Amino acid sequence: MILNLTSRVVRIYQADRPDGVDDIDLGLRQTIDPAPQAATLEPLPLVATVQDDVPLELIEYGHAANLPAARDGVYLIVAREIALALHPRRADLLVTHDDVTTSDGTVIGCRTLAQPN
User: The sheet that has 107-114: what strands, in order across it?
Assistant: First the structure.
């Protein structure tokens, strides 16, 4: 089972779907609707300093909100930043890969999902 924990519908297209086409239905294999609450990164502040009169804060990423515990056979589509921040602790996180774009370069979906490694 694959669950979508991003804030948008994930559209997955056929591998041969060309870029630069504005028809969002052309080559569409499936859509995965988002869950009611998207997973988000929660930065953990560590140290605050000032550099050249500019506040500077050292933060740690790697803490996610609205991310359920890992379960056998369940994969979660999340933002790339979340998957990278939690790698290698979470092998169940997926990201969109091989973007599909319209004529103006807007990303409307992907051809595959990927597991960051």
Answer: 2-4, 75-77, 93-101, 107-114, 10-13, 28-32
Q: Residue 86 gets which letter from DSSP?
A: H
Residue reference for tokens 């000032």: 50
Which residue type sits at 33? D
Predicted confidence (pLDDT) per residue in 7-29, tens digit = 999 999 999 999 999 999 999 99
CA dihedral angle for residue 99, residue 101, residue 105, residue 107, rounded to 10 degrees: -60
Q: Of 62, 114, 60, whose CA–CA distance to 86 is shortest?
A: 62
What gap in Å lies between CA 38 and CA 78, rounded to an integer?
8
Q: How far is CA 83 from the centre of its chain?
A: 7
For the record, the structure tokens of 9 come out as: 């519908």
Rounded Cα–Cα distance for residues 59 and 43 (Å) = 6
Phi, psi of 75 (to 5 degrees): -115, 145
What confidence score (pLDDT) does residue 33 get? 98
